[in-house]
Design goal:
Elements lengths: L16 H15 L3 H6 L8 H4 L20 H51 L6 H11 L3 H4 L10 H20 L1
């Protein structure tokens, strides 16, 4: 890390010298758009001295022109800059985590869907040519009509399977007429 020049606050600033220097260095990094350096200086863990102060403490200035919590205007400006940058970075990191979680969830759903499709396809009956069905029926002493009926569950929904069966029957009836 590079050495930073000392930062001087107004004489009436109540922020401790180390805290003031850290705040000003963070603000310099943020204003220079050097987010990596700001993170290294503690941007993500920054706690605002204004927010850390007790909320019940009221400023005794009736006109409202004294800085709140005894910070000088320079420290207050830097505090606002650093707090906004911290909040924006934390929101971006949270959004990235939500995006990664969504991608993982979608990937798991797609894999489960593919596994279900593979399982259904592997249990789906295969079409048996009529010549083989008749030969198999004769050797197994099963009537030809019964040998072509699948005994496993269809890959189609029941309504679609029924419609397909009607269409096949209609096509077979047309073929028999010709």
């Amino acid at each position: 890390m590079t050495a930073h020049p000392p930062v001087r606050c107004a004489a009436d600033c109540t922020l401790a010298a180390e805290a003031s220097a850290a705040l000003h260095h963070l603000a310099q990094a943020v204003l220079a758009h050097d987010i990596d350096r700001a993170i290294a200086l503690g941007l993500l863990g920054y706690v605002s001295p204004v927010a850390a102060a007790d909320a019940s403490v009221q400023n005794d200035d009736p006109r409202g022109d004294a800085p709140p919590h005894g910070l000088c205007a320079h420290c207050l400006d830097n505090d606002r800059v650093v707090t906004r940058a911290r909040d924006a970075r934390l929101r971006a990191l949270a959004a990235r985590e939500r995006h990664r979680a969504r991608e993982a969830r979608l990937r798991r759903r797609a894999e489960a869907r593919a596994n279900r499709r593979t399982a259904i396809a592997s249990t789906a009956p295969t079409a048996v040519p009529a010549s083989e069905a008749n030969g198999a029926a004769a050797t197994a002493s099963v009537p030809p009509a019964a040998s072509s009926v699948p005994t496993t569950r269809s890959a189609l929904p029941p309504a679609a399977a029924a419609a397909l069966a009607r269409a096949k029957a209609k096509a077979a009836a047309r073929g028999a007429k010709d």
